[in-house]
Amino acid sequence: MNSRLVSILRKEFIQITRDKRTLAIILIIPIMQLFLLGYSATSDVRNIPLAVFDQCRCAESRSLLDTYRAADYFRLAYMVGSENEIRLLIEQGEARAGLIIPPDYNTTLAEGNAEVAFILDGSDATAGSTALSAATLIGQSQATHLMIQRLERSGMDASNFQPPLQVRTRVWYNPDLVSSYFMIPGVIGMILYAITSILTATAVVRERERGTIEQLIVTPIRPWELVVGKILPYAILAFINTLEVLAIGHWWFGMPVRGDLSLILACSGLLVLSGLGIGLFASTIANTQQEAMLTVWMTLLPSIFLSGFFFPLEAMPQFLQWISYIIPLRYYLIIIRALLIKGVGAGPIWSEILALAVFGIAIMGAASIRFRKRLD
Questions:
Q1: Cα–Cα distance for residue pair 322/184, rounded to 1 Å
Q2: What is the value of pTM for the model shown?
Q3: Residue 129: what pLDDT?
């Protein structure tokens, strides 16, 4: 490494360490994002408040309520005296679901054609879909239990009773379906992409605002040395944040790290290339730090929403899925989740690695050429 590049790197690190508030924010914000998203961004819905209108008040209805109570999906929060009370509680947001047991429940149950009404608040689609699935499964379980009891009362041997169809499920890689295992790898990608692009763009524009970039241009420093010297410190900071999030995610949230750490860092480096390139390109467009921030955010928001970070790509309209193919973060999230959770090697994800490398080199190359031209 030549002395000119070392001087630029030393200057940039001094400038970073002098601004202790910004440095603290850079190191603390990923931890805050990790804890907020790790705990709050979850689809594991539990203890949904349930309002019950039991018109039968018999042993059979109490058995049904015990079944709902035993499942941790619902919390029997209210026992009401009319359907209007259920409606009022749901409208006020006090209850998310309502169970109505008819007055002849025990009679119709003995006849084999009992029905109960289950009302769901569909304004929250995530909680509503979880409650719908849970209510259906609980109802099926109770129906099977009642069928076994009926066979036993009729004198038949119900010990070997089996439903006509059984679906035996097995969950690989994440048996408990912990949402944080899915979310934390996404946080790593978002941090790498956001920090490298935002800090690179603002750092270069800050030199232009202060007039110091002209002083650097008249020195013997070559354009490529200036580019590398400006962006390399922020790449190092991004990798520090990555290791920071990985360590906390593993030791605090229990997220598995099954893949090869060197491969994880190498693939992260490919995403860093894209982030640095976008930040460098934004610095050639913007004249102020505010303009640079807005320019980066114009690419950051679509990348977060169309990469599969929050919402599954398969659930999006077809034209949005096509747009997602030009977003580097899309490929990185597939890679990092496969490496951390599944523990695969490079073979099964080679196409995503290749696409990420092409995007990183292309974006960084184009931004560097434009930046050098502007310096000239």
A1: 25
A2: 0.76
A3: 74
